[in-house]
Write a structure and sequence with these properties.
By secondary structure, the protein is α/β, with parallel strands linked by helices. It is built from nine helices and nine strands.
């Protein structure tokens, strides 16, 4: 049975004995609407802490949603989420209210993501990463985890959380776990439930585009870009936001990368009214 804490005091009380015993604490931050991808993060966190408690936060963070985004319709399925947590041996679910996380709204102090927060997702969603990093910093302060596990599907988020943890000396080991996909390649996302049947079929174009780039990457950067754009031209009902191939840290690549250069292909697009993101690793010129 997964214990539920809804306040800071309940959270601290639930962890006090385990922390006093010297056990490592793992954290999986989520916004709920949990699926198999989230479950894989829970399993990874359990493996990382070796028998110590795993905490899953379930909190739809209003600070990371911009005007006109899907805050109000974002799925809230706490009962089902707790069943997923229990099935994967999660010790504690932290499901606070907005008032518990942000006693004063709007918060007077937030975390500035720096230049990396202004590109890709940051360019499309101004202020998004300030909201993400602020709530993650709060969760790190409240849970005080030794390890926090994030999915690689949100690659830019993972990169920024790692940088924040390092730059601010937060003492948290930030671990990335591989993206979990449907059999046809679509990356699992809580937003996939918004897709109608035809949109669901169309959404597979994102992963096909990325894997076309990965297949062509052995021939270099330009062929990878060309292959991805050729695949995207065949897509229907997909409104592209961005398609980029960058270094793994999201910095620009040289025009002619050396053979064996690691890279990341990233895409964001709307399928109907639903905005989806995905990414895959590449090795250029291998």
């Amino acid at each position: 049975m997964t214990r539920v804490a809804t306040t800071r005091a309940e959270l601290a009380d639930a962890l006090a004995e385990r922390r006093h015993a010297g056990e490592r604490v793992g954290l999986v931050p989520t916004m709920g609407a949990l699926h198999v991808g989230h479950a894989s993060l829970m399993d990874r966190a359990a493996a990382e802490v070796g028998g110590g408690p795993v905490v899953v936060s379930v909190f739809v963070n209003p600070l990371q949603f911009g005007p006109g985004e899907d805050l109000d319709r974002y799925p809230r399925t706490l009962d089902a989420d707790l069943e997923v947590c229990a099935a994967h041996g999660v010790d504690l679910a932290f499901a606070p209210t907005v008032e518990e996380v942000y006693p004063a709204w709007p918060p007077a102090v937030t975390v500035d993501p720096g230049p990396l927060g202004t590109v890709l997702e940051g360019a499309s969603r101004p202020g998004h990463f300030a909201g993400v990093l602020t709530v993650v910093a709060k969760l790190f302060g409240l849970v005080r985890p030794d390890v926090a596990v994030f999915g690689e599907k949100d690659w830019q988020q993972l990169a920024l959380v790692r940088r924040m943890a390092a730059d601010l000396c937060l003492g948290v080991d930030v671990v990335g776990a591989p993206t979990v996909r449907e059999p046809d390649g679509l990356a699992l996302s809580s937003r996939n439930r918004y897709l109608g049947p035809e949109e669901r079929l169309a959404a597979v174009a994102l992963s096909r585009t990325l894997h076309a780039a990965a297949d062509a990457a052995a021939h270099g950067l330009a062929p990878a870009v060309d292959a991805a754009r050729a695949e995207l031209r065949e897509a229907h009902k997909v409104d592209l936001d961005y398609l980029e191939i960058t270094a793994p840290d999201l910095s620009p690549l040289p025009d002619d990368p050396a053979p064996g250069t690691p890279a990341r292909a990233l895409i964001a697009a709307r399928v109907g009214s639903t905005r989806l993101i995905d990414n895959v690793p590449l090795t250029l010129g291998a």
